[in-house]
Amino acid sequence: MTTHDDIRFGVLLSTDRYADESDGDVLARTVEVARFAEELGLDDLWLTEHHFLGASVNPSALGLAAYLLGKTHTVHVGTAVTVLPLHSPVHVAEQTALLDQLSGGRFVLGVGRGFPGVEYDVIGPGLASWRAGLAEPLDLTLATLNGEVTTGIAHGLPAPLRPSPAVRSLPRPPVYVAAGSPATTELAADRGLPLLLFYDKGPEAKAQMVAHYDARARAGGRPAPPWGHAFAVFTQVTESAERARRLMGNRARFILSLNNDPSRLAARPESVPPPVSPESVGTLTDRLLGTQPVGSVETCVERLVRHVSVSGCRRVMCQVEAAEKTGDVLRNLERLATEVFPAVRRAVGAVPGRGAV
């Protein structure tokens, strides 16, 4: 179990497609980066889930997690996130227990409700289930993992989870909740589950959410979660300010283009975002450059130390794939693992987090 003095560095693999890449190219790069991350001694791999987007090719965080757990030996693998309302919660719990057993306790389930896109009509029970939030499917997932689900027939016969979670993961494998609002933060705190926070939150905003979480937990008489809160950042070592701006400009353009993707607009035609303009790209680029660990080694260290120290989160999900060429991605990852992460640990007085969650 991670202690207060531990800090875990991981890679967030979002299977984004760059120019002229096939689906196979994207997935091959993902596997190569994942295996290299383990070779470098990183603690975690995190996988996203997106549906019907031309720009991202992984519709199953659980499926890719299973594959990467089979291709690795020591690194922990988590979903960031499994879009829970699109899945059967009981089946998610069953798959979680299965991956937990097969991997020897290396699987981490992260859940969220994602973006209100057309997938809620095509896969899920409709957009109303997105509006309803995570509480019901999350509680059913947790109840199944805790062995509390019944068949609901006759006298409520128990429906035992098979396989049961691995002994080292008892009482159950780690479950994280993606939070972007006070309501979801309170949901996680009420259930004693740690938070997953993403790029839209700077260090101070993360700290406010963690403080709100702590206050809610204290009010309910609940202890701190057994696993540290996690956050995602774009993380890129480059000695050139021009290159840093170009890379973050590309990311800004990519993020804004996703908001205009037809699969997302179809779900909310009444709230079409403005078209991607040079002004909007420039504004987001400036924001990313001002908050994300992108730039020289010294800048990356300073930004990561600030995120960790101010927010109190101890689990870092690094999006390392700003560059389009796989070789550049691997070189960036190597510099982070050998030059940046050790310096961050020294600065915050943390010990390496490799090993048990």
Automatic annotation (TrEMBL):
Q: Which UniProt keywords apply?
A: Monooxygenase, Oxidoreductase
Stretches that traverse the bilayer? none
Q: Which Pfam families match?
A: Bac_luciferase
Annotated Gene Ontology MF terms?
monooxygenase activity; oxidoreductase activity, acting on paired donors, with incorporation or reduction of molecular oxygen
Q: Name one GO cellular component term.
A: cytosol
Source taxon at top rank: Bacteria
Q: Does the keyword Ribonucleoprotein apply?
A: no
- Any idea where the Luciferase-like domain is? 8-306
Kindly indicate whether the keyword Oxidoreductase belongs to this entry. yes
In terms of InterPro entries, this protein maps to: Bact_Lucif_Oxidored, Luciferase-like_dom, Luciferase-like_sf
SUPFAM superfamilies, A to Z: Bacterial luciferase-like
Task: Give the protein name, as stated in the record.
Answer: Alkanesulfonate monooxygenase SsuD/methylene tetrahydromethanopterin reductase-like flavin-dependent oxidoreductase (Luciferase family)
